[in-house]
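Q: Focus on the shape:
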Amino acid sequence: MPTDSLWNVYILRCADDTFYTGICLDLTRRINEHNHSNELGARYTRTRRPVALVYHECLSSRSAAAKREHQIKQLSREQKAKLINRRE
């Protein structure tokens, strides 16, 4: 894996209007997995398809992305909605 790759922290809106937060290197591939793969998609999103990307940010390391993912997961639904709306 190249050391200059950027990590993505992302939030998906699921079909049941819940949010899913994750990290990855290839955002397009990962969203496709969430929507179409029973093996590679997250267990949470498998039963809540289709999912749509509503927010993402890029970070320089996996560690930074994991820390930011944790921060976002600690937010309330209302706080996540505000974060998403600031970017739209």
